[in-house]
C-alpha cells in the first residue's frame, strides 16, 4: 500500500454531508447488487437440494444453471468489492451492505469514532465508537463532535 493509500480522512458532519450525493449513489448500487447476490446464492442452494442435482454431476439437468449462477456470483462479488473500494477512496467505510450503512471517520474528544449514515437518511446525523455498530449509534444532536481536529491525518 503506498503512502497516499494509507492516508485516512477525518470528517466533520458538514464535510461528510458534502460527500453524500456520491456516497448515496454508490450505496444504492451496493444494496441492489447485494440483494441480487443474496438471491442468487439462495437459488443455488435450492437447486442443489432438488432431486437429480449434485454440484459434481456434470450430467445433472441443473449443472449448466448452477455453473452460470456460480460465475455470476463471482462477478457480483468482484463488483461489490469495486464499489467498496470506491467508498474507501472517498474516505468512507462500508459497515453493512444489506442495510446500506456507511461510516465516516471523525474525532470526538480527541478519539477517533465514526459518523454513521444509512441510505434513506437525509444527512449524517449519528455517530458510534469504533468498536460499536449501527445499532449502537447515537444522535449528533445529543453529543458534540470535535470539529477542531477534522483535518486529514496520517494513519
Can you describe what's shown?
α2 runs antiparallel to α3. A hairpin with a 4-residue loop joins β2 and β3. The protein has 3 helices and 7 strands, in the order αβααββββββ. The longest helix has 36 residues, at 13-48. The strands form 2 sheets. It has a 5-stranded antiparallel β-sheet. A two-stranded antiparallel sheet has the order 1-7. By secondary structure, the chain is α+β, with helices and mostly antiparallel strands. Mean pLDDT is 85; it is low at 1-6 and 146-155. The protein starts with a helix and ends with a strand. It is elongated, with a radius of gyration of 20 Å.
SSE layout and pairing:
Blueprint: H1 3-6, E1 7-8, H2 13-48, H3 63-89, E2 93-96, E3 101-108, E4 111-118, E5 126-129, E6 138-139, E7 153-154
Antiparallel strand pairs: 1-7, 2-3, 3-4, 4-5, 5-6
Helix pairs in contact: 2-3
Amino acid at each position: 500500500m503506498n503512502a497516499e493509500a494509507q492516508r485516512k480522512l477525518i470528517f466533520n458532519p458538514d464535510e461528510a454531508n458534502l460527500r453524500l450525493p456520491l456516497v448515496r449513489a454508490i450505496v444504492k448500487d451496493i444494496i441492489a447488487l447485494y440483494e441480487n447476490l443474496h438471491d442468487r446464492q439462495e437459488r443455488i442452494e435450492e437447486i442443489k437440494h432438488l432431486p437429480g442435482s449434485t454440484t459434481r454431476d456434470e450430467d445433472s439437468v441443473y449443472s449448466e444453471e448452477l455453473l452460470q449462477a456460480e460465475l455470476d456470483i463471482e462477478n457480483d462479488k468482484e463488483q461489490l468489492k469495486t464499489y467498496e473500494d470506491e467508498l474507501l477512496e472517498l474516505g468512507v467505510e462500508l459497515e453493512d451492505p444489506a442495510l446500506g450503512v456507511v461510516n465516516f471517520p471523525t474525532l470526538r474528544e480527541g478519539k477517533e469514532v465514526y459518523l454513521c449514515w444509512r441510505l434513506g437518511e437525509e444527512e449524517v446525523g449519528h455517530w458510534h465508537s469504533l468498536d460499536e455498530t449501527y445499532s449502537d449509534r447515537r444522535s449528533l444532536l445529543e453529543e458534540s463532535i470535535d470539529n477542531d481536529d477534522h483535518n486529514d491525518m496520517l494513519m
